[in-house]
Amino acid sequence: MSASAASQRIRLQQARRWVVKIGSALLTDDGRGLDQQAMAGWVAQMVALKRRGIELILVSSGAVAEGMVRMGLGSRPDSVPALQACAAIGQMGLVQAYESHFREHGVRTAQVLLTHDDLADRQRYLNARSTLRALMDWGVIAVINENDTVATDEIRFGDNDTLGALVANLVEAEALIILTDQEGMFDRDPRQDPDAVLLPEVQALDDRLLAMAGGGGKFGRGGMVTKVRAARLAARSGCATVIASGRGERILERLADGETLGTLLLPEQDRLAARKQWLAGHLQHAGRLVLDAGAVRALREGRRSLLPVGVRQVEGSFRRGEVVACVDEAGVQVAVGLVNYGADEAARIAGQPSERIEALLGYADAPELIHRDNMVLV
Ligand SMILES: Nc1ncnc2c1ncn2[C@@H]1O[C@H](COP(=O)(O)OP(=O)(O)O)[C@@H](O)[C@H]1O
Ligand SMILES: N[C@@H](CCC(=O)OP(=O)(O)O)C(=O)O
Which of 8, 121, 298, 322, CA to CA, is 20 to 30 A from 292? Predict the structure, then answer.
């Protein structure tokens, strides 16, 4: 479906923030219980990538499958409460295993349980984003799963692929790596048809993919359909997705080296263009920053970031990460952007040089109030 399979792999070599998603079938060796040896391998690779300066978040399934093993159940229960109970039981083993494997490398981990609803709610979305950013800043690996105790739709369907994509959108990841039990996406289900052909590179939004993707196996349930949908979702924030075999040797490191492995599902736009398009469509602003003439010029003519020194007034009660409008002193809109400081902090640093941020706030986040990558001129 594309002639330039190798060329786009450079995206992965350049990606600085990855979300890695590991499916149930793979993680539990098709339901035999947590595959500790395989887990140790993925963890070692993630640690190697982290040492190369890549920020990583892990989305891991396997709670239900592991809970089933612990309860001696041969097949996935039909009752939702039984599934939820299995997830609660299995999640203990899951995080315990990740904790100890990462600890061997001196890397800390954190458990984060989320539902799709959490990410649809603006406030909780921002809270989750701040937590994940703080964890990344501290170099701690977040191990994310669905909060199966309170969510029923997700567990019925069994799909962490979507969660992986939502997290990729949330943290603006450049790459979503979905590790599964197949080499990648084929033109039809390879379990059903041995003549199926692996697709090395496709456009995530190509509608033909949905017809080629089938359902999943006994333990993982989403199958290829949810992976394709996840890639489409991730593409919205300009994130590229790779579907690859978690059993492949040093798979993550080889992907980071740009090797042509698995299936690469490309977004139409890069991350910056996608973010700017999203911003441009974001008409509701949580507040306004009134800029002096010098700042207006720096934005309009110099395409620079907005520094606190150029802000005369802060209006509204916004939080870090929200969209605010930048206006000139006559109230004419100049730009919209994602602000790096909440309204109270912005008011305290307004008119001040960036070197003073730490002294004024007791900490310094970014030197700019709005980074130019997060800003669209109006
Ligand atoms: N076109 C396809 N290409 C590859 N795998 C496919 C395709 N269609 C369906 N599948 C199935 O999807 C399964 C992987 O999904 P799933 O069982 O949900 O695993 P996971 O737990 O990793 O999410 C594969 O084992 C395969 O049988
Ligand atoms: N959150 C649940 C279900 C997720 C699930 O099965 O997803 P997947 O294996 O990725 O298709 C679990 O951890 O078992």
Answer: 322
Give residues (CB < 6 A) around ligand 2. 23-24, 61-65, 87, 145-146, 148, 155, 158-161, 216, 220-222
Asked if residue 328 belongs to a known ligand binding site, the reply is no
Counting ligands in written order, the one closest to the CA of 189 is 1
Residue nearest to atom 12 of ligand 1 (CA): 223
The CA distances from residue 232 to 13, 60, 102, 240, 374, in Å, are 21, 20, 31, 9, 22
**Alpha-carbon distance 91 to 69, whole Å?**
12
Q: Is 61 annotated as a binding residue?
A: yes
Tell me which of 27, 35, 180 to substitute to probe ligand 1's pocket, judged by most ligand atoms within 8 Å of the beta carbon.
180
DSSP state of 258: T
pLDDT digits over 43-73, tens only?
999 999 999 999 999 999 999 999 999 999 9
pTM: 0.82
| Superfamily name and number for 7-271 | Acetylglutamate kinase-like (3.40.1160.10)
Q: How confident is the model at residue 168 (pLDDT cuts 50, 70, 90)?
A: very high
d(CA 299, CA 377): 8
The alpha carbon of 252 is separated from its chain's Cα centroid by a whole number of angstroms, namely 16
Listed by start position, the domains of the chain span: 7-271, 281-377
CA distance 170 to 57: 11
Looking from the CA of residue 223, the nearest atom of ligand 2 is: 11
344 sits in which H/E element: helix 343-349
Has 180 been labeled as part of a binding site?
Answer: yes
For 281-377, give the CATH class: mainly beta
Kindly calculate the radius of gyration of the chain based on its CA atoms and give it in whole angstroms: 22
Q: Bigger pLDDT: 291 or 6?
A: 291
